[in-house]
Amino acid sequence: MRRLIVVPGLAALLALAVAGLLRSAGPAARTDPVAATAAELRCPACQGESVVDSPSPIAASMRQVIADHLAQGRSREEIRRWFVARYGDEVLAQPPARGPGLLLWVVPAIALLGAGAAAARTLRPRLAGSARRSGARTRWPRHPGSARRSGGRTRWPRHPGGARRADGATSRWSPGPVCSLTAAGLIALVAAVAVAADGLAPPAPPPADPAAVALRLAWDLEGRQQYEAAAQMYREALRERTDDGVQLRLAFALLRSSDAAGAERAAREVLDHAPESPDGLLVLGLAQRATRPADATATLRRFLAVAPSHPAAAEIRRLLDP
Amino acid sequence: MLGDLGSAGLAVGLLAAPLAALLWLRVALVGAPARPARLASTGALLAAAAACVTLEAALLGHDFSVRFVAENGGRHVPAYYTVTSLWSAMDGSLLLWLLVLGGYGALFARGRPDRLQAYAMVVISVVTTFFFALSTFAANPFRAVDPVPLDGPGPNPLLQEHAAMGVHPPLLYAGYLGMVVPFALALAAPLAGPAGRQWLRLARPWALLAWSTLTVGIVLGAWWSYAVLGWGGYWAWDPVENASLLPWLTATAFLHTSLGGGRGRERWNSVLACAGFLLVLLGTFLTRSGAVASVHAFTDSPLGPLLLGFVLLAALAATAITGHHRPATARATAPPLWSRPTAVLVNATLLGTVAAAVLIGTVLPLLAEPLTGSRVGVGPGYYQRTAVPLAVVVLLLAGLPPALRSRTRADALRRLALPGAAALATVAAVGLLSRPGPAALTAFGAAAFVLTGLFAAGARGGTRRWAATLGHAGLALLAVGVAASASYQRVDEGTLRVGETIRVGDVWARLESVQRAAPGGRMTVRARLTVSSAGSTHTAAPAMRYDPARDTAVAVPAIDTGPRRDVYLTLLAVAADGDSATVRLAVTPLVGLVWAGGAVGTAGGLLALAGAARAGRRRRPQPAGRRAPATTRMPA
């Protein structure tokens, strides 16, 4: 009786589920054609990110190009081809299924078939041919009792002190050669690592970014108190990329190399758009003590007002109120 | 001074590890006393610990004469991230690797090891020797620097943004290196004669420990990348992520094929146990050698050829030793088709196929370049077409255990009816109300199938069944979280002037201000936005940090986590005049289930571990005695 209710109920649910699945897979599922196209392309400037996910400027302009093409009525396939023609296959998020790209499908298929066949053989061992299996057992080391599973443990009594095992099988041969061979193998392993490590190329240098190199150099020069040279390197870095942090470091370096006017200029550049920058005010004030002592006190008081807990604040207070 | 001390520690380890290998070999061959061997293994552990402590001391003491400190330390780095910078780059993380490996060795050698354990210790000691040699000769972090710099750049800024830096890498290493014990036991089993029969029972607790720590490590890493990388996702099918997934897949398969004593599946168990650790080594090669480009490739080193050589050596040894080993106990009768052995093998087959797809997708860019001269990339689309559908089928299998326990076919069908109806109803309802796409929709259905089945089966049964229930429920929750966050995430991105808004669904965000600050040389730009969603309002402050020492910018997203959904704001760019900003607003439903599912699954693994350890202790004092057969009830 229950079956009369359950079976039609399940059938109705199945029909509804199929309808839901078909609707979900329908063509309207992809709402945004730009995103769908961008998802098939790889951002050339990123590592493993698709154009749709990447926040990089290149990906943003690629999305713009896709939107333009779509607006001109090109199909997604045409847009894909356009990108491949310009950037090669590597712009595709997934290599085409030819050449090495074929491996992407062949390897999992082989794994599925191989493991599936092995599983079938494990489940139905008789089908695999009993002739081969009968010979297999002889390959086991022939220890007494090895054929019986439950006997394994009882025949290997534990010797608390680690005394020589009462076992006929091992006393047949001496362990000497095995131990010597293993020792030789271990020495060879360590030696191979040592020799190979010696011959290895040093780590590849980071991609040459002039700004990063200049910054690093400036850092090192400052550490060796060569402030003029450091300032030169900071200027070099700033030519590649404007950045307030670097600008302020330049100002400090100039101050230390007794170029107060230069330090003042550098600090003002930061203060122009960030008037409350504590470091900017600090360098400016210190520089003004050399160039325009009249303004210096006011600037340093502003610095103290903006950043009363700055690490240099105590020093400045002492300077202002001796 | 500290540098010499650290080098000395490595040298001691390099002597102790091969000595341990030889001494354990003597224990295995002639039953020599285990005490000296255990002492040597402990010595290797202590050497690794001493090296780690020395490098930590150098980092905390800002001893820039030590190369690793000069490259990764910095006076401006907070103490917590100074401690964690030990594993922020290759050479230091190798020390942590050695410490964990030594810890596993010392733990495994406890008690009164029999011949099987002695052989396994030989394998572990050889692996330890290799990594000590690697650390000493190829990646010695203690080399001296001349001239000594006054300050260092600090670790990669991405690694200084989240407290998970302190736990994620150590947990991941615990997971990776835990695989060495099942691997060593699988290699030792054919050598140890009759004692080898016990290998699976010994290996299971270690596999459970490795699986649990690896699971929590992977999920923690996903959460970390969600909270730090600023793109609103947590899994990108990146090579480093794939490298951590590969051993997880084979370990999951192993935990299932080794159920019930693994009888009739001896070959599967030994292949899967070996595959787990070989994939760990391969993953180390892929991610540590700079061979594949990855957002996680924080380390770049010339170790590639050495690691690849060792992977090949280990694979060769595993094949040579276990290859000729044939199961001695052949199954007298084949199990019925509807039984746990079938389900377990189908599961292993599918997980193996997923692993094959992930593996070829990860290494193809590496293979294709020398083969064709052109660079190829394998994006998420490939995995969504191969790994994801297979994973949905695996998820369905996780709902079967209650039905597999039934004695008759009619009973099995009865037990499947309710979960099946729940799955179909879920697919129908979700599919007709929204369009999540076929993969997500079937994942929802499969998760409903699993959860209903587990719930209907109730909480009867011992520790092991509870553990399985938790593990499978965790997987289902994780699948719901992944499917929902992938298919219902909505994103918009735009350049706003102060006072303008961006909107996603019913979530609005208004730009209030843009602020700049440069404390300690790290320039920070912070945007303040008022976010209003479903009647509530809060302030979010996503930021961008520029680190001049490393010349990198890090986007620090602002995440408002809720039970139903996360509101995720990232600052992408700021105009020079400071009154407009480009922001990305993402609303992701149910992403919290990903972390919750990971936590529940890990709890299942730990519970199974507790059960296995207790069973092991109970069994240990019995000198002889038959073990209670732990087979499934099968339909007659």
Automatic annotation (TrEMBL), chain A:
Q: State the InterPro entries in the record.
A: C-type_cytochrome_biogenesis (IPR051263), CcmH/CycL/Ccl2/NrfF_N (IPR005616), CcmH/CycL/NrfF/Ccl2_sf (IPR038297), TPR-like_helical_dom_sf (IPR011990)
Q: Does the keyword Protein biosynthesis apply?
A: no
For the biological process aspect of GO, one term held by this record is: cytochrome complex assembly
What keywords appear on the UniProt entry? Cytochrome c-type biogenesis, Heme, Iron, Membrane, Metal-binding, Signal, Transmembrane, Transmembrane helix
Residue spans with biased composition (Basic residues)? 134-162
Q: Which residues form the CcmH/CycL/Ccl2/NrfF N-terminal domain?
A: 33-127
Q: Where is this region: Disordered?
A: 128-172
Keyword Cytoplasm included in the entry's annotation: no
Q: Where is the signal peptide?
A: 1-19
**Which residues span the membrane?**
102-123
Q: Which GO terms describe its cellular component?
A: plasma membrane
Q: Which family does it belong to?
A: Belongs to the CcmH/CycL/Ccl2/NrfF family.
Q: Describe the task this protein carries out.
A: Possible subunit of a heme lyase.
**Name used for this protein in its record:** Cytochrome c-type biogenesis protein
From TrEMBL, chain B:
Question: Where's the Cytochrome c-type biogenesis protein CcmF C-terminal domain?
Answer: 332-610
> Is the keyword Cell membrane in the record?
yes
Domain Cytochrome c assembly protein stretches: 87-289
Query: What's the protein called, per UniProt?
Result: Cytochrome c biogenesis protein CcmF
Annotated Pfam families: CcmF_C, Cytochrom_C_asm
Q: Which domain of life is it from?
A: Bacteria
The entry's family comment says: Belongs to the CcmF/CycK/Ccl1/NrfE/CcsA family.
Q: Which InterPro entries does the entry link to?
A: CcmF_C, Cyt_c_assembly, Cyt_c_biogenesis, Cyt_c_biogenesis_CcmF
Its biological purpose is as follows: Required for the biogenesis of c-type cytochromes. Possible subunit of a heme lyase.
Alphabetically, which GO biological process terms does the record hold?
Answer: cytochrome complex assembly
Report the locations given in the UniProt record: Cell inner membrane
Keyword vocabulary terms for this entry? Cell inner membrane, Cell membrane, Cytochrome c-type biogenesis, Membrane, Transmembrane, Transmembrane helix
Source taxonomy lineage? Bacteria, Bacillati, Actinomycetota, Actinomycetes, Micromonosporales
